[in-house]
Amino acid sequence: MKKILITGAAGFLGSHLCDRFIAEGFHVIGMDNLITGDLKNIAHLFPLEHFEFHHHDVSTFVHLEGKLDYILHFASPASPIDYLKIPIETLKVGSLGTLNLLGLAKEKDARILVASTSEVYGDPLVHPQNEEYYGNVSPIGPRGVYDEAKRFMEAITMAYHRHHGLDTRIVRIFNTYGSRMRLNDGRVVPAFMGQALRGEDLTVFGDGSQSRSFCYIDDQVEGIYRLLLSDYTDPINIGNPHETTIKEFAEEIIALTGTKQKVIYKPLPKDDPTQRQPDITKAKEILGWEPKVHRAEGLKIVYDYFKSLSPEDLQKKEHRDFSTK
């Protein structure tokens, strides 16, 4: 039985990856410091023989006994609300955390896949974004703590690949949505749906002309799974190329939820990207992957999930107290 370590296992994407690799017959070791993750996302896995969980911060030394075949490094705050509140932790998990896990992969002779992001492209001057584009990022802007952590992650991963011959993979993840997202995490899908369910107006930042491309979680996980088991070592985009403006997306949510609220507009945050659309030519050619779930279908599933949450979860404003950080 192959053994895989998944960091960020109690997060939105990490928990779905745990599900997938359990289903594929792997022994899964989940690791998370729970700073933005939640154990309820993986509670259903705890009774299973081939799942184990380690409450640990990968920014400190990581040690595991026995053999290890694969590592998926998905530990990191992933929404602006989180990484603007805990900027130091965000930088550390992308830098020190990645260094620690690359060292573990080298020690265990394991293949490692690191989770990069479309944010490495910053506010892009090229549209759609292909993997050859170097990006337009402010290293000292408020979002730089996330963007530059991920850019460093890519750089050190490729350095280990070239210098040590480490077996590495890099996925650049574009906007992904699905069940287990936190309603209060600041990303647009849960933000709009949470506001609709609470009877609040939908908040659009800027004039709503900025674009995003939303990929359903099952499609994203399939792309990551294929990349891990492929022979491709350069970064690769995994996302849905079907682009929409935020204004159009807000109207979709209003139609889906039947809410009577209006859309209100607030100033656009600093360095917020105006365009985001992946070029997935490489994913199609190399991995034989492209998204299958249409946005209308995926949003209906996610809306049903959010409707099932308790009133307490629906009204929750903060995931945890970051005031001591």
Give an account of the 3D structure:
With 325 residues, the protein is an alpha/beta fold. Helix content is 37%, strand content 17%. The strands form 4 sheets. Strands 3-2-1-4-5-6-11 form a 7-stranded parallel beta sheet, with helices on both faces. Strands 7-10 form a two-stranded parallel ribbon. The chain has a two-stranded parallel ribbon with strand order 8-13. The longest helix has 22 residues. It is globular. The model has no long low-confidence stretch (mean pLDDT 93).
What is the H-and-E element order? Answer: EHEEEHHEHEEHEEEHEEHEHHH
Structural class: alpha/beta
Low-pLDDT stretches are none
Instruction: Estimate the global geometry from the Cα principal axes.
Output: globular
What is the number of beta strands?
Answer: 13
Estimated share of beta-strand residues: 15-25%
**Distance between termini?**
40 Å
> Looking across the biggest beta sheet, what order are the strands in?
3-2-1-4-5-6-11
Q: Rg from C-alpha positions?
A: 19 Å
Number of helices: 10
Q: Would you tell me the overall average pLDDT?
A: 93
The helicity comes to: 25-40%
Largest β sheet strand count, sense and barrel closure: 7 strands, parallel
